[in-house]
Each structure stands twice: as structure tokens, then as C-alpha cells.
Amino acid sequence: MRAYTLGLYEKAIPGQLSWREKLEAAKNADYDYLEMSIDETDEKLARLDMPKTERLELVKTMFETGVPIRTMCLSGHRKYPMGSSNPDVRKRSMDIMEKAIRLADDLGIRIIMIAGYDVYYEESTPETRKSFAENLKASALIAAKYGIMLEFETMETEFMNTVWKAVYYIKQINSPYLGIYPDSGNIKNAAVLYGSDEYDDLKAGAGYITSIHLKETVPGKFREIPYGTGHVNFEKIIETAWNIGIRKYVTEFWYTGSGNWMQDLKDVNLKMRNILDAMK
């Protein structure tokens, strides 16, 4: 048995496939689990209102395929941010958060990755940051009730593009149910921007990080960069994460219409497994 688990980001698989087909694809590519996406689209946000019968059927499908859904990427707050200057949007944001936590509880999801920004489509201000902190504290208390971890993704915006910045809010809220889920590509781009070191940044989160997104980037670009064509040193990122106790990893990449998408899943899995299996 391996000393770690390797998950697959749902968006690496064609979106039109059923849950069973997605879980089987993850299994065939040798992944341990799938990470569910709840993004800002109406289609994905509707999952938060999934009937109990569908939730039960999905749990059954996980058992039958042998591949669970163990993490959730909750990026729906980009459209409905916790720090919004609009009180109706903030209310919608908290509704999304509570429903996501309840869905995670029903499906056996352990970790919800939350976006590390106060607002996205509007200007960040002292007021938006204040509202963000207040709603973040309320969210952590809901998560505590259900025993579900909320963990910041380090983002592409300056509000929280480093682990250091995430640690500030972790210490401010001071909840055992609030942690950090760094994105390797985003912290690399931040290191280039600031002339700093992404490995030192990652180590700054020791004790607060449980998982890491293994994503490729190039300077100034954050999505859909093929592995091996960017500037992320996955060997050193994984070694650094491993040495601070991280044993849960997810490959974050996107299906972009390739007819060889299944082979892409296998190739990425093998690339990361080869690095992870060498860790001691």
C-alpha cells in the first residue's frame, strides 16, 4: 500500500460523462479518488441541491467502482464571494457554503477547497476584506459542526497568492477546521512575481496544509498549461510538501477536447506517481 493518495480533478474528464463513467475513468488511470468541482456555473451550483436519492446513488456508485470522491473544489464563490459589497450576494455566498458542507457530509468528502479571495469581479476594499473575514469565521463554525475541513486555495490574485497570506487568515480565525490547500502553479507564479521562493512559502504553511494541487503554469498564466511545458519543478514541490507531512495530492489539469484524454489521464498519473513513489 502506498504512503500517499493521488486524486484527479474532475475537469480533467469530459464534462458530459456520467458520474459512473468519470469514476471509472479515474480508476482506469490509476487514481485513488476524484475531486468534485462546484464552480460558478448554474450546472455545477445545482449540485448543491442534489436530492437525497441522487446522493445515495452517487455513494453507491463510489462503492461499486471502488473510487470515492474525497475532496471538493468549491470555486462557485468567485461569482458569489463572501466579501461582496452586496449583502444579497454575501447571503447567497453563505448559502452556497452551508450547502457545500452538507453535500460533503452526505458524500463522505473530507476536504472542501475554498477560493482565497474576498471578491473577484469587484474591487477589493477594507470593507470587502472585513466581510470576508466575518463570513469566513461563520463558515469555519459550520464546518466544525459537520467535521469537514475548509482549506484555502492559493489563487492567481494578489489577495491570497501565497501560503504566507493564507496563514494570516488561518491565525486570525484560529479554527482547527480551517487550513490551506496550496496550488503549486499559483505559488510558483507568485514567487516569480515577488522574487521569492515557492518552497519556503510552502514550508510556511507547515501544520496547516493537508493537501496540494499539482498544477503546471508559466509566468502570468494559470490554466491549461500542459505538464512539462511550464516552470513548476514538481520533484522539488513534492519533496518539500512530503517533508512537512503532506500525503494527499491532486493533479489539476483540464480536458480541452483532446481525443486522447484517457491517455492524458494515465500519462499525468504516471508522471506524478514516479515522483511520489520515490519519496522516503
Automatic annotation (TrEMBL):
Coiled coil residues, start to end: none
GO biological process: L-ascorbic acid metabolic process
Phylogenetic lineage: Bacteria, Bacillati, Bacillota, Clostridia, Eubacteriales
All residue ranges annotated as the Xylose isomerase-like TIM barrel domain in the record: 23-251
Keyword Isomerase recorded: yes
GO molecular function, one term: intramolecular oxidoreductase activity, interconverting aldoses and ketoses
Annotated keywords: Isomerase
Stated name of the protein: L-ribulose-5-phosphate 3-epimerase
